[in-house]
Every structure is written in structure tokens, then in C-alpha cells.
Amino acid sequence: MDVLVKIENDVFDIASRVKEIDSDYFVVYNRTKRRFEIHNKKQKPTLALVVPYNELDCRTIEYILKTKISRIDEIVREIDAHNEKIEKQKFESSIERLSYKTKNLIGYLDKGKSYLPSYEEI
After folding, report:
1. What is the Cα 118 distance to its own chain's centre?
2. Of the chain's two ends, which shows fewer C-beta atoms within 10 Å, N or C?
3. What are phi and psi for residue 118, nearest 5 degrees?
4. What does residue 18 show for φ and ψ, rounded to 5 degrees?
5. pLDDT at 84 over 90
6. Rounded Cα gap, residues 26 and 56, in angstroms
7. Beta-carbon contacts of residue 108 (< 8 Å; ≥ 6 apart)
8. What is the per-residue burial (b if ≥16 Cβ within 10 Å, else e) of 32-53?
9. Torsion of CA 73, 76, 78, 83, to 10 degrees
10. What is the average pLDDT across 71-79?
């Protein structure tokens, strides 16, 4: 029994539509891992990507187009923008915490305390 079963025909013609994206692509079903995979006959090893869905449908085509290497610049920009957003959120959160602690410290000192309070007291 072969582990990889090449898919030539399917209900939604995904196998032929994949070839329209790149003539070197082909679809297989991996029986061991129970998943669909897209392979590229010009690559060694041939595995290009794992289909993240349990069936072949239009999402497969969208996923291939989204992850295609020709989009690498756009993908890197998306990743950088996402990382920048996360860093900005972390920075703003740190500023908010610092502002809160500073206000509490000033309030504490305004009450006439003569020593610096511990972190937990603020």
C-alpha cells in the first residue's frame, strides 16, 4: 500500500486548478498522516505545503495562492506589520503600568510619608 496517493480527479477539480497555479504542482493524500499535501516535482523533497483542511475545496486554492513564494515580499510585510503592532501594544501597556505606579507613588509621597514604599505598597 502506497503512503502517498496522487489525486488526479476530485469533485471540485482542485487537482487541475492547482496545476493552473503552477504546472509542477500535484496533489497527494498522505494515508499515514491523513492529510492532503501539495507537492512540486521540481523540488527535492517534493513537499511544498500541507493543506490545512480535511477536504479539497476552494480554500485549498486560496491557501496555495496566499502562501506562494512569489508573494514573499508581501508576506514579510504582513509579518512585520503584525510584529510592529504587537510591540506597540506591549510598549503602550508598559507606559500605562508605569503611569499608574508613578501616580500612586506621587500620591503616597503627598501624604507626608518620609520613605519610599515597596513596589507592592504603590
Report:
1. 41
2. N
3. -70, 165
4. -65, -40
5. yes
6. 13
7. 117, 121, 122
8. eeeebbbbbeeeeebebbebee
9. -160
10. 84
Q: In whole angstroms, give the CA distance from residue 25 to residue 40.
A: 4
- CA separation for the pair 68, 49 (Å, rounded): 10
Q: Which three cell numbers stand for residue 53?
A: 483542511
All residues at 6 or more sequence positions from 15 whose CB lies less than 8 Å from its CB, including other chains: 7, 8, 9, 26, 27, 56
Tell me how far apart the alpha carbons of residues 61 and 13 are, in angstroms, rounded to a whole number: 10
C-alpha cell, 93: 501597556
Cell 476530485, residue?
A: 10
Tell me if the bond preceding 117 is cis, omega within 30° of 0: no
pLDDT at 102: 84
What pLDDT, on a 0 to 100 scale, did the predictor assign at position 83? 96
